[in-house]
Specification:
The structure holds two protein chains of two kinds. Chain A is an alpha+beta fold. Chain A contains eleven helices and 14 strands. In chain A, strand 12 and strand 13 form a beta hairpin. In chain A, helix 9 runs antiparallel to helix 10. Chain A is globular, with a radius of gyration of 18 Å. The N and C termini of chain A lie far apart (45 Å). Chain B is of the alpha+beta class. Chain B has two domains: 78 residues, Beta-grasp domain (Ubiquitin-like (UB roll)), CATH 3.10.20; 69 residues, Orthogonal Bundle (DNA polymerase, domain 1), CATH 1.10.150.120. A five-stranded mixed beta sheet of chain B has the order 2-1-5-3-4, with helices on both faces. In chain B, helix 2 packs across helix 5. The relative contact order of chain B is 0.15. The chains are: A alpha+beta, B alpha+beta. Chains A and B meet through strand 1, helix 2 and helix 6 of A and strand 4 and helix 3 of B.
């Protein structure tokens, strides 16, 4: 095995072009290797000291998060909490303080777990992923990034360098919550992210919902109506349960997941709408509202 | 492949020649010889292996030792003040927050990082700060009380315990 430390994106891309694999905090890679899921790659290039990957920028174009930004930073970033709340909700639920310190947004989305806590948030917030290689840079809509459990459209010579999120329209809010059996070191039993834009009068002008841990990848719910909030919430519940393709595993049966994801989707829509209406709900929604825990 | 690196642990530079796939926990325990840091689950779940990297908690079982080069590593041995226990350690004993003791070094490291970032945490903040550390003996209440007592003492250092 070889291990090198890159200090610039260019150094990292050169190493990737020669066959190295990137490592940031290593929280998925190192644990996975010990489990026999996948051995450590023969050639590793550390990207956790590349300063340009660790910046958060907010401007008129929206939010740009470097791929090396930790969940801990996202969770505590006041502008992300205020305007891209669902992402802050998701990052705040990951693992423990130690996991959130070493775990990065780029690593989380490229690990492509269908149960990841940031994915549904990124989908409903219309994120775009920046992929760089020595040949150039391309932008991929987040929904096209994942091709299966643990599989992505990222080529071996490409590095995820940033995630871009547009500024939400006025009167918008978002939330991500998950069903969990315990409050920390947990993986979503099911999860849902929602983004809601309210029309004058409080009806729903636009809504997006995405689901985690109910399909081979994060999936977006199709066919949601607009209009009366309660009716949108009920429709989100019904459509989420209908469109889910869950599996049975150690954490839940497929039938339970299919039912529960509807409940969680409706709660996510209602929490997002409360934020859209100007209510301040602390990050993460799971803790602030005391919802999501199966008791 | 073996590589010679220097790890800075508790203010001491330790040169070690290690395989690059080794985790930080095994290098601290078997190469450097500091055995206060424990291996629990070896799966990034239990927090027994918690050390501080540049002051922030890290599960050393799931962190490559080569990635810790040039960073400041603090283990449980590094929180002692000479031969004197850190207030957290003393309060864990006084409050009965220690039974088998296996989780205690990790608890102390997480609590140290918490109090450095937030000197007067609420009970909820303490529970979140320790949420990556499992204890199978005490049930957490006394551990949380020990952290609360330490925070109060550090805020008011002139008020010593009973003589």
């Amino acid at each position: 095995m070889s291990f090198t430390i890159a200090l610039t994106v260019e150094e990292a891309l050169t190493a990737l072009a020669r066959g190295a694999r990137p490592i940031a905090g290593g929280s998925d890679l190192v644990v996975g290797a010990r489990h026999g899921k996948a051995p450590l790659p023969d050639h590793l290039v550390a990207i956790d000291r590349i300063d340009s990957l660790r910046t958060v920028t907010v401007d008129d174009g929206g939010l740009a998060i470097g791929a090396g930004v930790s969940h801990d930073t996202i969770e505590r970033h006041p502008q992300i909490a205020a305007n891209w709340s669902a992402l802050a909700d998701g990052s705040a639920l990951v693992g423990s303080p130690a996991t959130r310190h070493v775990g990065t947004i780029g690593g989380n989305i490229c690990n492509a777990s269908p149960a990841m806590d940031t994915g549904a948030a990124l989908v409903v917030l219309a994120a775009t992923v920046e992929l760089a290689s020595v040949g150039g840079t391309r932008l991929v809509p987040i929904g096209e990034l994942w091709t299966g459990p643990g599989r992505t459209a990222v080529r071996a010579d490409e590095l995820c360098t940033a995630v871009h999120l547009p500024s939400p329209p006025a009167a918008s809010g978002s939330a991500y919550l998950r069903l969990e059996y315990r409050r920390a070191m947990e993986i979503a039993v099911v999860g849902a992210g929602a983004a809601v834009t309210l029309a004058p009068g409080g009806t729903v002008a636009a809504v997006r919902v995405a689901l985690s841990a109910v399909a081979p990848t994060i999936v977006e719910v199709d066919g949601l109506p607009t209009g009366d909030l309660a009716a949108v919430g009920e429709a989100a519940a019904a459509l989420a349960s209908e469109q889910a393709r869950p599996i049975s595993d150690v954490r839940a049966s497929d039938r339970y997941r299919r039912h529960a994801v509807g409940v969680i989707a409706r709660r996510a829509v209602l929490a997002a709408a409360r934020r859209a209406g100007g209510e301040s709900i602390a990050v993460p929604v799971n803790r602030a509202l005391g919802i999501g825990a199966a008791s | 492949m073996s590589e010679s690196i220097v790890l800075n642990v508790n203010g001491v530079p330790y040169p070690v020649a290690i395989d690059q796939s080794r985790n930080l926990l095994s290098v601290i325990r078997t190469e450097i010889g500091l055995t206060g840091t424990k291996e629990g689950c070896d799966d990034c779940e239990c927090g027994a292996c918690m050390v501080l990297l540049d002051g922030r908690p890290v599960n050393s079982c799931s962190y490559l030792a080569v990635q810790a080069q040039g960073r400041t590593i603090t283990t449980i041995e590094g929180v002692l003040e000479g031969d004197t226990m850190h207030p957290l350690q003393r309060n864990l004993l006084d409050e009965g927050g220690v039974q088998c003791g296996y989780c205690t070094p990790g608890m102390v490291m997480s609590a140290t990082a918490l109090l450095a970032a937030n000197p007067s945490p609420s009970e909820e903040e303490i529970r979140i700060g320790l949420s990556g550390n499992l204890c199978r003996c005490t049930g957490y209440t006394k551990i949380v009380q020990a952290v609360q007592r330490t925070a109060a003492e550090l805020a008011e250092p002139a008020a010593p315990a009973e003589g």
